[in-house]
Design a protein that fits this description.
The structure is a single chain. This protein has one helix and four strands; from the N terminus they run ββββα. It has 64 residues and is an alpha+beta fold. It has one domain. Strand 1 and strand 2 form a beta hairpin. The protein is globular and about 35 Å long. The mean pLDDT is 93.
């Protein structure tokens, strides 16, 4: 994670979303209740799109 600036931290019961910004765009990370870190590996054009992707990762993870 080179030259990444943390721009948002969002919390949900037992879950945490971190959004970072670099020159390439925004990245998202999801911290699960058991402290596993999920990442879609993509660069997003806006903070909002990175946040929506992170919420999708949470939804998908909760289904299992």
């Amino acid at each position: 994670m080179q030259d990444c600036e943390l721009v948002d931290i969002l919390t949900y019961p037992d879950w945490v979303i971190a959004i970072g910004r670099t020159a390439l765009g925004y990245r998202c990370w999801v911290f699960t209740p058991d402290f596993t870190v999920l990442d879609d590996g993509e660069w997003h054009p806006t903070r909002e799109s990175a946040t929506e992707t992170a919420r999708g990762l949470i939804s998908e993870s909760m289904e299992y």
